[in-house]
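Hey team,

Filing this mostly as a record. A colleague (T.K.) asked me to run one chain through the structure pipeline before their review meeting, and I want the input and output archived in the tracker in case anyone asks later how it was produced. No errors, nothing strange. Just documentation.

Input sequence:
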Amino acid sequence: KILNGTKYKIYEAELIQPACPFCGSVSLIHNGHLKIHVRYITANASVPVLIRLFKQRIKCRDCSKRSMAQSSLINKYCCISNTSKLKILSALTENRSMTSIAREHNTSVNTVQRILASCSHRFIDGYDYLPEHLAFDEFKGVDRKLHFICLNGETHEVVQILRNRF
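Output structure:
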């Protein structure tokens, strides 16, 4: 199908809620569907893949709570599949621009930046522990500038590298 001047492969799927996620009851009142378009990975970037997903809305007769069918395909309130996010993360490990990654995966540059920011907390070092023995040194790094390095004196693991020698 052609949408906004771009040719897409569109697959339709329906998510069904078998039981209430709050109480586990199967006595449910079906209350329509929510239609979302999920971007999915594709081998050919010129023909992107969309999944037209119909999420079933329900109301439990026992606990009177409302819910919507969920899937491991996508996160709640999101329209980009988790596999697409993982593919974008693997592309971010290469020496490429975010614009080319976004173009290849049929997303925006802001989406690529958001995916990078969502996993950046894993790379921040915790400074609540220092080893008993520290070793300090300076070395010439990028642009022949002096950098500061701090090592564990016993295991020789890098504790921190600073951009300048101060």
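Quick notes for T.K.: The chain is about 15% helix and 35% strand. The two ends are 59 Å apart (CA to CA).
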